[in-house]
Amino acid sequence: MTVTEKTRPAATEPVASVRNRILDVAQELFSELGYSAASTRAIAQAAGVNLAQLHYHFGAKRDLFKAAYLRGAVQVTEARSKALAEARTAHAEGPIPLEVLVRSFVTPFMLAGNTPAGRATMRMHARLHTEPDDISKEVLSTVYDETTLAYVTEFQKVLPHISHETLCWRLYFMMGAYRYTLLRTGRLEAMSGGACDSGDFDRAVAEIVPFLCAGLSAP
Amino acid sequence: MTVTEKTRPAATEPVASVRNRILDVAQELFSELGYSAASTRAIAQAAGVNLAQLHYHFGAKRDLFKAAYLRGAVQVTEARSKALAEARTAHAEGPIPLEVLVRSFVTPFMLAGNTPAGRATMRMHARLHTEPDDISKEVLSTVYDETTLAYVTEFQKVLPHISHETLCWRLYFMMGAYRYTLLRTGRLEAMSGGACDSGDFDRAVAEIVPFLCAGLSAP
DNA sequence: GTCTATATGGGGATAGAC
DNA sequence: GTCTATCCCCATATAGAC
């Protein structure tokens, strides 16, 4: 304590927390407003820092977006591919049962919605395809490509009688269905006259799994 | 020709075409870039008019967006509800067969993709939920609410053994699946290694109909 | 109805002191 | 690492001449 070295002790901790605060807010605002409508000024202000700090830590807006997106997505994607790996070893002899497979794919993102940070991750994910082209393409191939291909392989194993092309289409529809659910558009409430709640993600999982299993294995 | 009246003869035609040109371009740019990223300047320039003209004809950006969106959506929605009405009269005695119902719901938007203007309509529709909240809510309830409720009723008739809530969830998943398809995200191509083409909307319809029928009527 | 010019504010990004 | 001040551009919207 007496000898204060240049900047090392207790200087790294707060820095990390500043970065985290910025990322939290960035996730929140990007997920709510989208890339273009969420301004760096608004993010800085909500995080309690100033613009210069934001640029010091993350560089350009693009890069901040990528960092914010990836922080959430990497986490969830790891959960997903871990779930796949476990299912793989649990059914070493044959194919993974369809329901298990669907559930392992859908659950990590859908149940993320039960925490506030997870909700932001979810929404950023769901709306990623409507962000500026170059950003979304870059980010997507960074995180998803490998895992997705592994899933295609596994699905083909449980559904060997379905042609590869048809299978791909169906998996594409699956992605659409669950991503739309993550968005919480309010259409479910409008349609059901308030009987259903699109924020009830446990229910959403319970409903979507049989729907997808049936759709994927349709004749 | 000799007597030139104030502004009436042949003055209404070009005006309409200016408005149409603006709407065409607005649809195109909004559908490609989204509300925030598509600037009124860019729209005016691409339409070959200046900013003041754009405001003269459509008022604020919000209103231009609504006009552009509604022009396409109203058309497609009318096709959809006409298809429903026809199916209704063709099966006066009992419920409309599931496949007919699904097809009538999905086809108007999906086959719109075969024309350039329709493609823009499609994409605006698909990404509407990621536009600023107030705009999307307002527009959605203007065009879709009635038709959607009519569909819920019809689906319940063909699928009487499914609870109302579960049915709503499934219809919600259906919306997600087909809207995502309209977006053309490139994920289909990535997943299939280029074997499938997400721009082939006839194929998309052929694939999605059995998928949805199976999913909706899952046990 | 159409144009030019401009008002007014917000955006991303950086310089340079501390 | 943090701050203030500022550059410079682009945004939406309107005024007012023609």
Describe this structure in words.
The structure is a homodimer of 219-residue chains. With 219 residues, chain A is an all-alpha fold. Chain A has helices spanning 12-33, 40-47, 51-58, 61-90, 98-112, 116-127, 133-143, 145-158, 164-183, 187-192, 201-216. In chain A, helix 4 (61-90) crosses helix 6 (116-127) and helix 5 (98-112) runs antiparallel to helix 11. The first copy, chain A, starts with 11 loop residues before the first helix and ends with a helix. In chain A, 41% of the residues are buried. The model of chain A is unreliable at 1-12 (pLDDT under 50). At the A-B interface, helix 7, helix 8, helix 9, helix 10 and helix 11 of A face helix 7, helix 8, helix 9, helix 10 and helix 11 of B. The structure holds a DNA duplex (18 and 18 nucleotides).
Q: What is the β-strand count of chain A?
A: 0
Strand content range of chain A: under 5%
Spatial gap, N to C terminus of chain A:
73 Å
Q: Percentage of helical residues of chain A?
A: over 70%
Radius of gyration of chain A: 20 Å
The stretches of 5 or more residues of chain A where confidence is low (pLDDT under 50) are 1-12
What oligomeric state do the depicted chains represent?
A: homodimer
Number of helical stretches of at least 4 residues of chain A: 11
Largest protein interface, residues of each chain:
A-B, 58 and 58 residues
Helix/strand class of chain A: mainly alpha
Order of helices and strands of chain A: HHHHHHHHHHH
Apparent shape of chain A: globular
Calculate the mean pLDDT score of chain A and round it: 92
For the biggest sheet of chain A, the summary is: none
Protein name (chains A, B): TetR family transcriptional regulator
GO molecular function, one term (chains A, B): transcription cis-regulatory region binding
Organism (chains A, B): Roseicella aerolata
DNA-binding region (chains A, B): 39-58
